[in-house]
Every structure is written in structure tokens, then in C-alpha cells.
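Before the break, one more example. Copy the sequence into your notebook; we will annotate it together after we see the structure.
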Amino acid sequence: MVLSGHNHYYARAVVEGIQHITTGGGGVSLDTPDPTQLFIVNTKKSLEFCKIEIKNDFLLFSVISNIGVKLDSLTIYETPNSEVIDHRNNNPTDPAISNYPNPFNPNTIIMFEHPHDGKMEASIYSVTGAKIKTLATEFRRKDKYSITWDGTNDSGSKMAPGVYFVKIIMKDMVMVQNLMLIQ
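Here is what the structure looks like once it is written out:
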């Protein structure tokens, strides 16, 4: 996990499995968080406080607004083989995203929860941030959905094996999930 300050708003991104958290105190924002940027998991344009607790083999990270509302949280666990695994806490207001199988070839099913009626866009990106394919751009009702990615780009060409990201943008929230295409 990487913590940095001087943004004065909250932003969390996951890049190559590393949580990047930018947070600050009060004052004028130096950079307004943009939820449409690749790898952004959560952003809040508000004053906030960060709370970090270390208990035995896990770290609890919480972001709390200046009026006491929990804005974001995650837990990082250390496994017996010292591999670090992170995941979002089971917060009922957090949308869910997953895919199966992962790793995959030739297809993976991306499952997600659309927490409110509105427009959504689901796209596939490379690790360099290049948009590979738009899977959907449409209005969706509040519900659970699945979309299949066949490992191709917008032109229909098969992509090389590697790590890709699906990014789903909805109203004021963004979900990102990593996908591993294998031979």
C-alpha cells in the first residue's frame, strides 16, 4: 500500500495489485479526483480522515468524512506464505464486481451489481491504460448483471495473453477488476 498526501480529497487506485491512496486534510484541493481514470477504485470530493489499524496478521484501512460517514474501507491480510492479499470490506453500500474464470481462455464472464438506475459503460483496458474494447454503453436498471469478454479488441482481433482490466463506470462510481488472459 502506498499512502500520499496533499490532494485534500480522497482517491484510491489499484495498479498491478498495489493500493495507491491519496488523501489530505483541509484547504483547497490541488487535484479534483476523476472517477473515470483507469485504475481508480473510489474517489470522494470531501474532507476526510484516514484510520489505519494493524491487528495480528491484517491491516484495516478506513476513510471517514468530517461528519462521521464511512467513505471507503479495505482490509489487507498477510497469508502464511507472506503473500499479501487485499479486498474491500463487505460494506452493503459497496458495489460488487468479479469475473469467472480468472485466469481465462477464451472467455470470461464479468459479474457486477448496478446499484442504481442510470447509464453505465463497461470497457477493457491494457496494463498501459489503452482502451482495448467497449463491452457496453447503455442505460441499466438497478440489478445484478453479467457481460462476457471473448479476449478480443474492438476490431475483433484476439488479444495477446496477459493482464487486462475491466472498468465499469456508473454515475458517480467506478469499479475495476483485473482479468488474466492465458494461452
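The two ends are 31 Å apart (CA to CA). Residues 79-94 have pLDDT under 50 and may be disordered. Try to locate both features in your own notes.
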